[in-house]
Amino acid sequence: MATGSLRKGTLFRMCETTSPSNRSCAANIEHMLESRIFEVIEYKWWRTVLKIALYLLILTSAFNACADRDYTLQSSSMEPTIPNGSRFNILFSAYQSNEPRRFDIVAFQPPDSDLGVWVCRIIGLPGESMAISGHGVMINGKALVLPTGLKYSPGATGGKEIKLSATAYYLLGDNTEEAIDSRILGPIERSSILGKVTNFGATKNGN
After folding, report:
1. CA–CA separation, 119 vs 106, rounded Å?
2. Cβ count near 82 (within 10 Å)
3. How far from chain centre, in Å, is Cα 20?
4. Scanning 20, 89, 108, 121, which has the fewest C-beta atoms within 10 Å of its C-beta?
5. How many helices (H) and strands (E) does the chain have?
């Protein structure tokens, strides 16, 4: 504001000095300065609007990324817990402030695969040593107490002990005879886990 006033006063004095008989000179200069001020105000107003629109777009994108999304399971790997054809949601924000827990059912993307979203249950946690044998699941040499109804077979592991890295999880499908899980895929990195599976059970037909 101070700079604008100085320039305006200087231009008025120049006009009076160089052309005292031209009374419209000062008026022309004042009109020019006022037009310039309105241009600056209009520019700042549009810039503010654009900033608000950008912030809203970012907030909307962040909300959509964290919100539940509806999916349909096209596999029998999680039966009977999640029947083939069941609908389910993925809570993408579930592990933003908390780490995945044992027995959580999670959605993930297998390594080197573009086959979409897969669903399995977390059995082994980072840093643990685990093995699957006819005697059950062993974690750090101790038998893991599984939820009622769950029973896993060794599959491709042959009962060998596996040491999980500090960022890897061991995932198994509840339908151990049919599931393609960490017994075949190997441990799943934390970065490949998309979120927690929720609201599952109903099929497309509503059964």
Report:
1. 6
2. 24
3. 70
4. 20
5. 3, 11
Q: How many Å is the maximal CA-CA distance in the chain? A: 109
Please give the order of strands across the beta sheet that includes 118-124. 68-72, 87-91, 193-198, 105-108, 118-124, 168-172, 188-189
pLDDT for the residue numbered 18: 47
Q: Are 121 and 105 spatial neighbours (Cβ–Cβ below 8 Å)?
A: yes
CA–CA gap between residue 13 and residue 164 (Å, rounded): 82
Q: How many residues does the chain have?
A: 207
Spans in the chain with pLDDT lower than 70? 1-69, 113, 155-158, 201-207
Helix, strand or coil, per DSSP, at residue 65: helix
What's the mean per-residue pLDDT of the chain?
Answer: 76
User: What gap in Å lies between CA 185 and CA 43, rounded to an integer?
Assistant: 56
Q: How are beta strands 129-133 and 193-198 bridged, if at all? A: unpaired
pTM of model > 0.85: no
Q: How many CA atoms lie within 13 A of 74 on its CB side?
A: 4
Beta-carbon contacts of residue 65 (< 8 Å; ≥ 6 apart): 92
Alpha-carbon distance of 113 to 109, in angstroms, equals 7
Tokens of 15: 């006009």
Q: Which are the contacts of 1, defined by CB distance < 8 A and separation ≥ 6?
A: none
Alpha helices (runs of H) in the chain, residue ranges in sequence order: 2-18, 24-66, 182-185
**Which residue is associated with the tokens 């499908």?**
173
Question: Which SS3 state, helix, strand or coil, does residue 110 take?
Answer: coil
